Amino acid sequence: MNPLWINEVEARIRAAATNLDPQTTPDEVIMCKRCVVTNQRPRITFDDKGICSACRYAEDQATKVDWDQREHHLRMLLDSHRRDSGYDVIVPCSGGKDSSMVAHRLKHDYDMHPLCVTWAPFIYTEVGRANFDAFVQSGFDVVVAHPNGHIHRKLARLALEYYGDPFQPFVYGQLAWPMHCAVQYGIPLVMYGENGEAEYGGDTAANNKPCWDFKDWDRVYSKGRDVEALIGLGWDINALDNDDVRNVSPFYGLPLKHRLEGAEFHWFGYYHRWHPMENFYFAEQHTGFEVHDERSGGTYSKFASLDDKLDGLHYWFAFLKFGIGRCTSDAAQQVRAGDISRDDALALVERYDGEVPERHMDEVMEYLGMDAGHLCTIVDRFNNGNAVFFNNKFENDGRGIEIT
Ligand SMILES: [Zn+2]
């Protein structure tokens, strides 16, 4: 084990993090009558017919949106940024199916010159790295950011202890790094994939907009848990020293407001109807994307969110905290897209949701500087009773980690 800090700090973290406020969850769990998501998902809303906001959004996408007009708006937007030479659009891209599709279509269907930018995973999986390499080979320039690994590990561990999500430092950079590139390289247009809040159930304020205002960014994405807050927690407990704080990457947060002037980001999914399964077929055909040979832990799919060995823990903790596991999210999305029936989705959720992410667990524990015993105490702290919604598998999972 490669410890992150001295034993005294480790003991202090374990003690301090036990006094957190419990996660709030609804008294009565309601499942959407059309898909399989429940009201436990943060920020989702249900109408009086028992249909969730993501299903209503999908319905509008299918019946109300004038896609020809949106396509026209996209062409106008791109024309206003198009350059004869040099890059004219930034595409945040991991080599995954969705971002690869966006980059490829912008380049080949719209004759743009994308500069792709990647915020590296904590620990690349083999398949994630292979897909990234294949994407580069398919004909794109990519600038990759790897934040200071020592500090990144500490932030991931602190985020797990305090927020029940080791993934948070990745999310900071995934959102902010492309905007730094926009400013740094003088390419004001940034094209992200989909509006996740609208597509999967969340804040509906931008359902009919091509982007968030930057002023909404903190409210929606960091929820009072931005990188400064996390650094403050680490500083208070001596987990981060002077040197660490001085060296925290600026890429975790947005560029200063005045530097962002003129930069804009848009969702490609606003202009083209978003369908992850189609993105997969597209990327497979055009950018060398390959599925994993095994399904991802906690779900049935083999083609989504494959890059990072910490993915499994991230989704598992969402299940513990909210009762919404990876399979629920995948299956609900596929019901809305018309790929599978609700009955099939229910069966999949029953079978896979909340499965302990065994794959890569040893390596992930090493990365986070902790052992499985301590993981159990964190699981206990964040398991809000949601884990028993579909079954009781966490009482003694029987798959290597005993959680009591
Ligand atoms: Zn629904």
Entry summary:
The protein is mostly helical and 404 residues long.
Describe this structure in words.
The chain contains 19 helices and five strands. With 404 residues, the chain is mainly alpha-helical. It has one domain (7-402): HUPs (Rossmann fold), CATH 3.40.50.620. It has a three-stranded parallel sheet with strand order 1-2-3. The protein starts with 6 loop residues before the first helix and ends in a 22-residue tail after the last helix. The chain binds zinc ion. Zinc ion binds next to helix 2.
What's the topology here?
Elements: H1 7-16, H2 53-63, H3 67-81, E1 89-92, H4 97-108, E2 114-119, H5 126-137, E3 141-145, H6 149-163, H7 168-185, E4 189-192, H8 196-200, H9 214-222, H10 227-236, H11 242-247, H12 257-260, E5 264-267, H13 268-271, H14 276-286, H15 311-322, H16 326-336, H17 342-352, H18 361-367, H19 372-382
Parallel strand pairs: 1-2, 2-3, 4-5
Helix pairs in contact: 4-14, 6-10, 16-17
Protein traits:
single chain, 404 residues, mainly alpha, Rossmann fold, 48% helix, 6% strand, globular, disordered C terminus, binds zinc ion
Fraction of residues in helix = 40-55%
Radius of gyration: 21 Å
CATH class: Alpha Beta
Mean of the pLDDT scores? 89
CATH topological fold name = Rossmann fold
User: Which molecules other than protein and nucleic acid are bound?
Assistant: zinc ion
Q: How many domain modules?
A: 1
Strand composition percent: 5-15%
Low-confidence stretches: 388-404
Q: In CATH, what is the homologous superfamily?
A: HUPs
Note the main sheet.
Answer: 3 strands, parallel
In sequence order, what are the helices and strands, one letter per element?
HHHEHEHEHHEHHHHHEHHHHHHH
Q: Judging from the principal axes of the Cα atoms, what is the shape?
A: globular
Task: Please identify, by name, the CATH architecture.
Answer: 3-Layer(aba) Sandwich
Can you count the beta strands? 5
Strand order of the largest sheet: 1-2-3
**Structural class label:** mainly alpha
Total helical segments: 19
CA(first)-CA(last) distance: 24 Å
